[in-house]
Design a protein that fits this description.
Layout lengths: L1 H8 L8 H14 L36 H11 L2 H110 L1
Length: about 190
């Protein structure tokens, strides 16, 4: 286990430590971030990602059902003091990195929450600004509806009168044609 940790410690200085890559991939998977790039302030998450390590090469602490007491007893029994100190420093560093990363995630989520609250307050104030205009529009539509009803009543009464007058006019034309018939017939006979 210590030899695996020593091999992990020999990785180049420009590559992210395994713990940071692991956290970055977990956070990326949780938040659905493509390629691990999270945007502003996440430079450590945008580093090129190594392919996921097989479960066999994972640290014992990363495995399902990890027993901390048993791991400590195994290390204490088999490792030298310098190896134990190195392991303790690596674990402490990884804990600090994870703590910093989690604090950053909490801060980012808090910032998003604050922004969403500000937007909600802004929407509410905008709606309150529009309330008098909406009331005015409602009153205007009410007046328009009243005027429309009055116009329809006036037109419907007049339309009946106009229809009756048109019917009378047609009857009058027919009567006029009948009265003019003898004169028209006389003219036709005279020709």
């Amino acid at each position: 286990s210590c030899s695996k940790m020593a091999a992990a410690g020999d990785v180049g200085s420009n590559a992210a430590p395994p713990g940071r890559r692991r956290l970055g991939s977990m956070l990326s998977a949780y938040y659905g971030i493509e390629g691990g790039a999270g945007g502003g302030g996440n430079a450590h998450l945008s580093a090129p990602k190594a392919p996921p390590a097989p479960i066999a090469a994972a640290k014992p602490m990363d495995r399902q059902g990890f027993n901390a007491e048993q791991h400590f007893e195994d290390l204490a029994a088999t490792a030298s003091i310098p190896q134990l100190l190195k392991e303790a420093n690596e674990v402490n560093g990884e804990v600090q990195e994870l703590d910093g990363d989690m604090n950053m995630v909490i801060y980012e989520n808090y910032s998003k929450f604050i922004r969403a609250t500000e937007v909600a307050v802004q929407v509410k104030s905008t709606m309150l600004e529009f309330a008098p205009d909406v009331e005015y529009l409602e009153k205007s539509f009410g007046l328009i509806s009243e005027h429309q009803e009055k116009v329809e009543e006036g037109i419907s009464g007049r339309s009946r009168e106009v229809e009756l007058l048109l019917k009378r006019q047609r009857i009058c034309r027919k009567l006029q044609a009948l009265f003019d018939l003898p004169t028209t017939l006389q003219r036709c006979l005279d020709r």
